[in-house]
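so my prof wants the structure for this chain in the tokens format not the other one, which i didnt know existed until like an hour ago. anyway here's the sequence
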Amino acid sequence: MVLTVAIDGLNRSGKGTQLHLLKRFLQDRGLPAVILRGDGSREGKGLSEGDPCDEWWQRFRSRLADAVTSMQRFACWNEAADRLAEEYLHWRDSLMPQQVQRVNAPCGVILLDRSLLSRLMLAADERGSISLEGLYRTEYHGTPVTWETMMPDRMLVLVAQQDTLLARLDPDDPKYGFRSGLILEKYSLFQAVLDGLPQELQGVTRHVDADQSIESVWRVCLEEAKCVIARK
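here's what i got, hopefully its the right format
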């Protein structure tokens, strides 16, 4: 059995911290777990199990930088989403079941760094409306990939105030301007997608107050993950 827990939210909401805490918790209890990128991009440098070496991803940033128009940038991000979807499904249907069988575990858990909420944000930015239709433009083993295909067992959305996210940035970071600009640019869109979240996703979505301490957020994420595993 393979379960998927996705964590979504804006930059500096604490996604990476919670994903790594969950991975360590699960592995300490003998459950195979891997962190995969569910939307956006990955480095492709082979530095982790969930980010194997891949020249396509290594070239992606250059391709994105060369995209001049918004239409070209949307096309790049959509292509990246399709590739991530294919990689996720390969893990879900092939790689993770093999790991579960190898260690005779009751289940394995895929932890997604970003998921359908991030997909909806880009789609809403591109189309001007919030819709689950047409989020993916690829096939996996001959079957079209849809939002239903990509539905996690639980999607935890870390929600923090804009000022909190900005305060967590390091002013000495060379990318401070880029990171702060991204938060300022996407905050209203994030809230709009949350407010208009399609009913089909509401049943698997839990909003988590990310203004709290790491420990408080961790307790909520852990309980949610335990509930998903217990139900399965």
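also thought this was worth mentioning. The radius of gyration is 17 Å.
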